[in-house]
Design a protein that fits this description.
Elements (H helix, E strand, L loop, with lengths): L1 H13 L2 H19 L5 H8 L8 H26 L8 H12 L3 H35 L3 H18 L4 H15 L2 E2 L6 E2 L13 H19 L1 H4 L15 H21 L8 H18 L10 H25 L5 H12 L8 H4 L1 H30 L6 H20 L2 H19 L5 H23 L11 H37 L1
Antiparallel strand pairs: 1-2
Length: 510
């Protein structure tokens, strides 16, 4: 019960008027930056890092806690309303959330997102406080072979579950891996797919890929249909962001399922919350197919927003625990937080809880308070954000293009990034035209470098022995699940094909 005593002491510090003010300012600033296309939560922490230098350490980290989660809330807001997620962790939410917005349920989608983020973050932070030692042990079980198996599992799961066609899913996966391989190969120093251009030696930023595929691809897709759909079509931005009892009964199990995906991934350095959010979305889509739910892929399903949001913030919550207890940044945003700690001469890790308990426990307590503040801020203002959709399409999408390009250019001030966004946007437009799914491209681009690095490390350790890839219970379990997923998907595809043939035969006879 020592944790509970320390946490109560932390609340006594976090709930002082001045620290509550820093929490409120951080929540507003983090959400505002997160909403801007192309920026996102990691950029929010980076941009606002200098703001905290004049504060005392406790106030600075309490403010960063609310910026950290506020950026995640903002990421999803941009994705739901404009189909332009501020960060890759909000991509999965965009698929159903933007459909809900186009169907006139933007406020409901934002409300669901806020509740999912709140519940996922709250459960994960509670687990961090009381079960941090066990989360640390879980992270130490993963070596290079386990990370590669995890990435391979994510590739196959997303390609087979999210995509309507396995073949199209694998094609999208190949496109994503090709984008991920652009740049200098670390071990050999060879340039790959750079066309001899020095600007491509560092590879293509995931922000460039995300903005190109989702934002610019959507703009071009809408532009191609503007005469068919109407240039100034308006959609309803009204409605309440609060879920009624029927909607809450649908969303609550999805909140819990998403959280169960997100909690363990926050401790594992696989690059952030992309994997659990996509897996959570894929699970909800598969369950919807069994229920024959028409909302998925059509009007937009609440479960498709609830699960990824809970997974994303649950990952962020346990990632903070991994950062404090291990000094291990498991996402780009967490890596930015390490810079903040080092600015005050502190190194996160096991000794931090002993040497700086007066800082750590108020920080953990502020995570709980910050989530409550963000829920209070975001739920009432969901309908206000939704009024962005009342702007006529030709103005709205022109603005999206402008802000997306400015956001991309702000990352590295590189003209090449603008050309890349244009090229990837054209690719995204063609993929929409030919019904090739976007999710496998994004997950491959995010996890491709990790998979390649961990595969090489595994083979280097084993001196080329492939047996190391299946040499532990974790890898065997992951590959077994992957085989089951492939087999089940093929079985479903064959069954659907057989049903269509029987329907065709019956129609011809009649």
């Amino acid at each position: 019960m020592d944790q509970l005593t320390h946490l109560l002491e932390g609340f006594s510090v976090a709930l002082t008027p001045i620290n509550l003010l820093w929490l409120l300012i951080g929540a507003v600033l983090g959400t505002a930056v997160g909403v801007l296309p192309g920026l996102g939560s990691a950029m929010a922490v980076a941009l606002l890092l200098p703001v905290t230098f004049s504060l005392d350490p406790t106030g600075a980290f309490i403010m960063f806690a609310s910026i950290y989660f506020g950026g995640l809330f903002g990421d999803s807001t941009a994705g739901i309303l404009l189909n332009t997620p501020g960060n890759s962790s909000a991509i999965a939410t965009t698929f159903e959330g933007h459909r809900m917005a186009k169907d006139g349920r933007a406020a409901k989608a934002l409300g669901t997102s806020a509740m999912g983020a709140f519940l996922g973050g709250m459960i994960a932070t509670t687990l961090v406080v009381f079960f941090a030692p066990y989360l640390v042990k879980l992270a130490t079980l993963f070596g290079p072979a386990e990370y590669f198996a995890l990435a391979a599992f994510a590739f196959v799961a997303i390609s087979s579950v999210v995509a309507e066609s396995v073949l199209r899913g694998l094609l999208a996966l190949a496109i994503g891996l090709a984008l991920a391989m652009v740049g200098i190969d670390g071990p050999s120093g060879a340039a790959r797919f750079t066309l001899g251009l020095p600007q491509l030696f560092d590879g293509i930023s995931i922000i460039v890929i995300t903005v190109g595929l989702l934002a610019l691809g959507e703009v071009l897709h809408v532009a191609s249909r503007i005469h068919r759909d109407g240039a100034v079509t308006r959609v309803s931005a009204g409605g309440s962001p609060f879920l009624n009892w029927s909607e809450f009964r649908k969303a609550f199990p999805a909140f819990l399922r998403g959280t169960s995906f997100g909690v363990p991934f926050g401790v594992i350095p696989v690059g952030g919350s992309e994997v659990p959010t996509f897996l959570a979305y894929g699970t909800e889509k598969k369950l919807a197919q069994r229920r024959k739910d028409p909302d998925f892929g059509g009007r937009g399903a609440i479960q498709g927003v609830a699960a990824p949001e809970a997974a994303g913030n649950a990952t962020a919550g346990t990632a903070m625990g991994a950062l404090l207890a291990l000094g291990l940044p498991t996402s780009a945003t967490a890596a930015m937080m390490i810079a903040a700690f080092q600015q005050y001469g502190m190194q996160p890790g096991p000794l931090l809880f002993e040497r700086s308990a007066d800082l750590v426990w108020p920080l953990l307590a502020s995570l709980f308070v910050g989530l409550i503040i963000l829920l209070i801020i975001n739920l009432p203002f969901a309908a206000v954000w939704a009024k962005l959709l009342l702007v006529p399409k030709h103005y709205l999408y022109a603005g999206i293009t402008l802000f997306a390009m400015l956001g991309v250019y702000a990352i590295a001030s590189a003209e090449m990034d603008l050309w890349l966004v244009l090229g990837i946007g054209l690719l995204g437009f063609l993929m929409r035209r030919f019904s090739i799914p976007l999710a496998p491209v994004l997950i491959a681009a995010i996890l491709g470098p990790l998979a390649e690095t961990e595969l090489r490390r595994s083979l280097a350790v084993s001196e080329g022995d492939l047996g190391i890839l299946v040499g532990s219970p974790i890898t065997i379990t992951l590959y077994s699940l992957m085989a089951i997923a492939i087999g089940f998907t093929l079985f479903q595809a064959l069954r659907r094909r057989g049903a269509k043939k029987r329907e065709a035969v019956g129609a011809s006879r009649s």
